[in-house]
From TrEMBL:
<protein>
    <submittedName>
        <fullName>FAD-dependent monooxygenase</fullName>
    </submittedName>
</protein>
<dbReference type="InterPro" id="IPR002938">
    <property type="entry name" value="FAD-bd"/>
</dbReference>
<dbReference type="InterPro" id="IPR051704">
    <property type="entry name" value="FAD_aromatic-hydroxylase"/>
</dbReference>
<dbReference type="InterPro" id="IPR036188">
    <property type="entry name" value="FAD/NAD-bd_sf"/>
</dbReference>
<feature type="domain" description="FAD-binding">
    <location>
        <begin position="5"/>
        <end position="340"/>
    </location>
</feature>
<dbReference type="Pfam" id="PF01494">
    <property type="entry name" value="FAD_binding_3"/>
</dbReference>
<keyword id="KW-0560">Oxidoreductase</keyword>
<keyword id="KW-0503">Monooxygenase</keyword>
<dbReference type="GO" id="GO:0004497">
    <property type="term" value="F:monooxygenase activity"/>
</dbReference>
Amino acid sequence: MPKRILISGASVAGPALAFWLHRYGFDVTVVERAPTIRPGGYAVDFRGTATHVLDCMGLTAAVKQCETRTGAIAMVDERGDTLAQLPDGFTSGDIEILRGDLVKLLYDATREDVAYVFGDSISALTQTSEGVDVTFTSGKRGRFDLVVGADGLHSNTRALAFRNEAEILHEMGYYLAIFTVPDYLGLHDQGRYYTQLGKRVGYFGSKNDGSAKASFYFASSYLDRTDSDPLRRDPAAQKQLLRDIFSDVKWEAPRLLAHLDQASDLYFDSLSQIRMDRWSDGRIVLLGDAACCASPLAGMGTSIAITGAYTLAGELKKAGDDYATAFANYEATLRPFVAQAQKMGQGSVEWFVPRSRLRLWFSRKLWSWMPKATLKELMIDQPNKVASIAPLRDYT
């Protein structure tokens, strides 16, 4: 059985996989380019099979202590008047928690048993019949039986071991920015959305700490650049771009943007999906967003990461030395779930941030016309069904 496993990425998927691999007797190292675990981030949720995996990890009670569950969410006009009321908790899944809180819980659950290396990353991978020879940016070297890329949408591991990102990253025509602001409206656990043509502003309060999350979506057509990669790496340019693009947006946009310079947790990226024919190559395998990002609009990133980590570790335990079979079984188990999650993300984006005046008008009317039972089916019941597609296999 392969014993030494290197995981790149210490967000959600990586530590979750490390949790199960240690339980099954593997020697696990997690490398993370950041100097420590990353705080902040927006709320993430558990749905379907992932909720049962959390129970199996014994972490449900700890997660619920930090739960942020969003209540009433309203679509508003420029004066803040309600145009439509969305189902309570439609963004929250079965359990909702801030990404930073979840990362800390997973890290605390594994830090005593797993070797974490912060402030470093993989610079080269060479596969041999004996394992994978890894060179790190620090200059250190090591040999591992298997390497797992759990390092997100712009995975470094994937770039080194598979192919150019441009071939498998499919942009959806929009960008997203999220950062923390004070809950100056006193919404607590409630949320608001305001939409203009090709732009959407969100404000979601937190019942725990008096803060809120501001979200800004905009169509890529507002970005008059042919190369967005430098923008992705430059927070100052990102902030200026947000101010420029949303300078004409009403409601709370100006007040939210006034807090931008004080925000230390700005997330800015394209809404994109990762679509690959295979998630593994020899002894190297991808997990979570690195393998199959469905985009934040799908609302399934955490469920895919947690369910995938449980399945990958279980299949490696079951297959013994035959890692190729383990990778194939892991992928076959997750693929149907991922396919439906990506389809859901693709289908919602044009209605979420309409780019035509007709669609904008119709989307505003749609939410107010639709019966509550129909809204619940579309926004809560159907996503929960998708999140339950992946089976919870017994690997004990």
